[in-house]
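2024-03-11 09:14:02 INFO queue: dequeued item Prohormone-4, len=201
2024-03-11 09:14:02 INFO validating residues
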Amino acid sequence: MARQQQLILTAAMILCCCGGGLIVSALDLNKLYGHIHAKRNIGEPCHPYEPFKCPGNGACISIQYLCDGAPDCPDGYDEDARLCTAAKRPPVEETASFLQSLLASHGPNYLEKLFGSKARDALEPLGGVEKVAITLSESQTIEDFGAALHLMRSDLEHLRSVFIAVENGDIGMLKSLGIKDSELGDVKFFLEKLVNTGFLD
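2024-03-11 09:14:37 INFO prediction written
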């Protein structure tokens, strides 16, 4: 009984601190949403102390067993590198909302200044805002991000220079991109979160 109480407390703390982001937002949305809704209709929901449902067999495991180096899902999905990276990143919804707010404030082609010419028309050539948000969440490094979205090398290097400037506290780079003074704090905070989770490594 003590172990169950400890697991419930651990899960509750993670869910409260992350706003549930680790379970819902940290994965490829299409895969996770379809999986969770299908499983909830078929069988019993997972217990609060084992809230993560493995794809495939629907086994429920504790959040503390995600990305712990030992596979607990039959297919090892709980140790998938994309899941483990995404678990450290801002929730996908937060990233998508951030990108949308920049587009709403500056126009549909604004993100060309970050991602290059393929970011025209509200990121449509890159698959849209949601795909870019998911890729930012799941890509271990900026190189992985560029490869996943097929960015040109020059665009990727420009993006890297923006992140390096933010890492070094140079907000002049952000101002040169046309970021408004009222947005500087939010943009810097968001980019720093990616840097702090190894995006530039």
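2024-03-11 09:14:37 INFO annotate: The two ends are 42 Å apart (CA to CA).
2024-03-11 09:14:38 INFO item closed
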